[in-house]
Specification:
single chain; alpha/beta; 22 strands
């Protein structure tokens, strides 16, 4: 390698920036490298007259050294690019991997890996191989609690579009994949595109605590705030769908519209979703992913043969590399394991934003089947279902134009204000009711003055915890509190903290929680969800935090444990309600 490099350096002088051995190592970040080329050259200007002959002469001389062919990377731009669509047919075996030889003097390898991606690529100095450059957005970080979330913004438009892909992602590696880059370019032609790495994946922080949909909703809001987005269209692929649905119901004022592709409200079989896999089947799949993640053959079988059979052969390695390098095997298994308990069926009727549900008829993998998308469309008010031909899970593969046409038409309707009307006065919220056990008896025992002083301490303790967990005090009636939260896990944690705080005062509480649609009435909230929450609290035993099944379903991945308290009739509320007690840690 060193001898060949020196031969080219002698022929080209200081116009040669470097020579690269092109192999199969994972490191590097150049966006156009050929798998059958032995040596890559970078020159500081486009080829000059006579250079073609010079290169050919040296190449012929070096064949005896094992270097059979040469790829010339032309002028080096300040920012990166990827292969244009018109180049993919001719350069049908291009890869995205590079090895840096010891004799190459390049500073800041990571920056070169991203930025030296070729703006023009000439094979034998032919001008017909010029490659269109794509501007790679700058990666920034949004702070979500104590976690930093990596994100990028690209494109322009009246609408913001947040793309949330299935499983894992890497905001910078994705641009080295022609398939990902092509998708981003298409999205950015329709709207101002925002992409980010979910917590625990890509360039975002790996949190130490449990991961929940609630925490991921906080991440979306943090990215929107940092990226200057007041409202956005959320586009969720696959298992990202429940997150997007929950966000749309909880924050309708920040959700312009919702797009769901190959999604489902839950992942494990239920009586009204009999086509879904059993829990045992899904647990087995989680174990398989944990064992196989990182193995190229596993990724090829799962993400190409099973899920994206139409992916062009020349794009597969780069496409799979984004997944492999975005999360560890343990992280991938943990992410999927959390999804086993996700269930947003009760949230669907509360989504009041324009919604487009898409599904390719040939996508029938586990929970990603047409019946799941039909279920979503039937239960989300005003949702439009479009079933398209094709077998590929990823939107950019197969026959993407039909899908993009539907998306573009839908976004045009959203921009023009057509479609379902947003109801900002109705939101998904979690209500909390607390009540002091045997308050009347304690008041009689202590006397009015002492009781009033104890109540003041009680109120101070409750309000302190509400402020800590972003609870909003709605009403206080004697010894009871009524508060609302924008996340059920925070509400449960707050209720438990309140219980401990007032226990130190010698008081015992009963607490009840429910998540549902609340009507905003100036500074108050109303609706059936409020009545259900009050009835749940009335069923709680002394010292117990009791929740509805809806609350339990929405805190998947939180680590909160529950004890089944069975089915109950709630006064004035139709039907039976299954209630669960929060177990004391």
């Amino acid at each position: 390698m060193a001898e060949a490099t020196e031969a080219y350096r002698a022929a080209l002088g200081d116009r040669l920036l470097g020579a690269y051995a092109l192999g199969s190592l994972a490191h590097g970040g150049f966006s156009a490298l050929a798998s059958d080329i032995d040596l890559g050259l970078i020159v500081n200007d486009p080829l000059q007259p006579g250079d073609e002959k010079t290169i050919e002469t040296v190449a012929d001389a070096e064949k005896g050294s094992g270097f059979v062919d040469v790829l010339i990377l032309g002028s080096v731009p300040r920012r990166g690019g990827v292969l244009g669509e018109d180049q993919e047919g001719r350069l049908d075996r291009l890869r995205h991997q590079l090895r840096r030889p010891d004799d190459l003097d390049l500073n800041d390898r990571r920056r070169r890996g991203r930025d030296v991606a070729s703006e023009s690529l000439a094979h034998g100095a032919s001008s017909e191989d010029t490659v269109r450059a794509v501007e790679i957005p700058e990666t920034r970080y949004a702070r979500s609690g104590d976690v930093s979330i990596a994100y990028q913004v690209t494109g322009e438009g009246l609408l913001d579009l947040i793309w949330i892909p299935s499983m894992t992602h890497h905001v910078e590696l994705a641009w080295e994949s022609p398939a990902h880059a092509r998708l981003f370019k298409r999205f950015a032609s329709m709207a101002r595109l925002i992409v980010f790495d979910k917590r625990g994946t890509g360039m975002s922080d790996r949190p130490s605590g449990p991961e929940t949909l609630e925490a991921r909703m906080d991440d979306i809001r943090a990215v929107m705030d940092a990226g200057g987005s007041d409202r956005a269209v959320l586009f969720g692929l696959g298992e990202a769908g429940p997150l997007c649905m929950l966000f749309a119901a909880t924050y309708p004022e920040r959700t312009a519209a919702l797009v769901l592709l190959h999604s489902t409200p839950r992942f494990v079989r239920a009586p009204d979703l009999p086509w879904l896999p059993s829990r045992a089947e899904m647990e087995q799949r989680v174990e398989e992913f944990g064992r196989g993640w990182g193995d190229p053959s596993f990724h090829f079988e799962e993400m190409i043969e099973r899920m994206n059979p139409s992916a062009p052969e020349q794009e597969r390695a780069a496409f799979l590399r984004v997944f492999r390098l975005s999360v560890s095997p343990g992280g991938a298994a943990a992410y999927l394991r959390m999804s086993l308990d996700v269930d947003v069926r009760d949230v669907l009727p509360l989504i009041r934003v324009p919604t487009l549900v898409l599904h390719r008829s040939g996508v029938r993998q586990g929970w990603a089947v047409p019946a799941s998308s039909r279920f979503l469309a039937e239960h989300i008010p005003g949702a439009r279902l479009v079933e398209l031909p094709g077998r590929d899970f990823g939107p950019v593969f197969g026959e993407p134009e039909a899908l993009f046409a539907e998306l573009e038409s839908f976004l045009a309707e959203v921009r023009e204000g057509r479609g379902a009307e947003v109801e900002p006065d109705r939101v998904l919220a979690t209500v909390l009711f607390t009540d002091i056990v045997s308050a009347t008896a304690r008041a009689a025992e202590l006397g009015d003055r002492t009781w009033r002083e104890l109540l003041k301490q009680h109120h101070k303790a409750v309000r302190g915890q509400l402020g800590r967990f972003r609870g909003r005090e709605m009403d206080t009636a004697g010894d009871g509190f009524f508060a609302t939260f924008d996340g059920p896990a925070r509400a449960i944690t707050c209720a438990c903290a309140i219980r401990e705080a007032v226990h130190a005062l010698g008081l015992e509480l009963r607490s009840g929680l429910h998540s549902g649609e609340c009507e905003l009435l100036e500074d108050k909230v109303g609706g059936i969800a409020v009545h259900i929450g009050a009835r749940v609290a009335a069923r709680a035993l002394p010292g117990e935090v009791l929740v509805s099944s809806t609350v339990k379903d929405l805190v998947a991945g939180s680590g909160i444990e529950f004890e089944d308290r069975g089915a109950h009739e709630l006064k004035g509320i139709p039907g039976e309600w299954r209630l669960y007690a929060v177990e004391v840690a």
